[in-house]
Amino acid sequence: MVEQLLINNDDYYVPDANQLITEDDTPVDNFASAKQQRLLVGSLYSSIQQQTFLAEANVGVYYTDLQPPIVPDVFLSLDVQLPQNWWEKQNRCYMVWRFGKPPEVVIEIVSNKEGDELGKKQKIYEQMRASYYIVYDPNQQLGEQVIRVYELRGMRYFETSETWLEQVGLGVTLWQGEFEGRQDVWLRWCYQDENVLPTGDERAQQAEQRAQLLAERLRAMGVDPDTL
């Protein structure tokens, strides 16, 4: 059976993507999780300009051809990019053997007690060798901790109280505010000074505020900014 899934490539074998399920069109999320995923992914793309990376939500990650893919709520992989033809079968999901490495960060958002985020999923991400595994439990379904961070040390995950992810140069933090018209507490990426990575809308608002401040200063100096 394994031989049917493999094709010869010189001195080694790689799985045949045509035999793998890259998507099944099954809806799996709720409103809160979907918004949280968009916030985490979108803020990365609006804020990080100088580094190549791939971040996505609800996209399958194949870590071995012998098992079905695992589908993180969010993942971040540094120094990789989407192939040009993303509609080809082998390019539709994250296959570790094609990208040459696992994602550095995988995040699971807990919405019930059925996901086994601290059991089977943790073991899979550990086997996949993702550098960091983050469990965000906003409703405290799994205990008192809202954020759990696991760091890969050697072959095993160790829980850490450190929310700064040194190997990726980013941190995570809880932030209270409005996103897409919803006021709530959100999980956000942050810099080392704990300032959050802004979304595109937040960047636009900041630019508008700076422009308004400049206009007020010019008017105070007797200059009409509309004539400049």
Give an overview of the whole structure.
The chain has helices at residues 31-47, 96-99, 120-128, 200-220; strands at residues 6-9, 12-15, 53-56, 61-62, 74-78, 94-95, 105-109, 132-136, 147-153, 156-160, 164-165, 170-179, 182-190. A hairpin with a 4-residue loop joins β11 (164-165) and β12. The chain has 228 residues and is of the alpha+beta class. The longest helix is centred in the C-terminal third of the chain and has 21 residues, at 200-220. The protein has two domains: 2-197, tt1808, chain A (Alpha-Beta Complex), CATH 3.90.1570; 200-228. 25% of the residues are buried. The strands form four sheets. A six-stranded mixed sheet has the order 3-5-7-8-9-10. Strands 11-12-13 form a three-stranded antiparallel sheet.
What is the fold's blueprint, element by element?
Blueprint: E1 6-9, E2 12-15, H1 31-47, E3 53-56, E4 61-62, E5 74-78, E6 94-95, H2 96-99, E7 105-109, H3 120-128, E8 132-136, E9 147-153, E10 156-160, E11 164-165, E12 170-179, E13 182-190, H4 200-220
Parallel strand pairs: 4-6, 7-8
Antiparallel strand pairs: 1-2, 3-5, 5-7, 8-9, 9-10, 11-12, 12-13
Protein name: Uma2 family endonuclease
Pfam family, one: Uma2
InterPro entries: Nuclease_put_TT1808 (IPR012296), Restrct_endonuc-II-like (IPR011335), Uma2 (IPR008538)
Number of strands: 13
Shape: globular
| Low-confidence regions | 1-10
Helix content: 10-25%
> What is the terminal-to-terminal distance?
72 Å
Largest beta-sheet characterization = 6 strands, mixed
With strands numbered from the N-terminus, the spatial order across the biggest sheet is 3-5-7-8-9-10
GO molecular function, one term: endonuclease activity
Protein name: Uma2 family endonuclease
Pfam families: Uma2
Domain Putative restriction endonuclease: 27-153
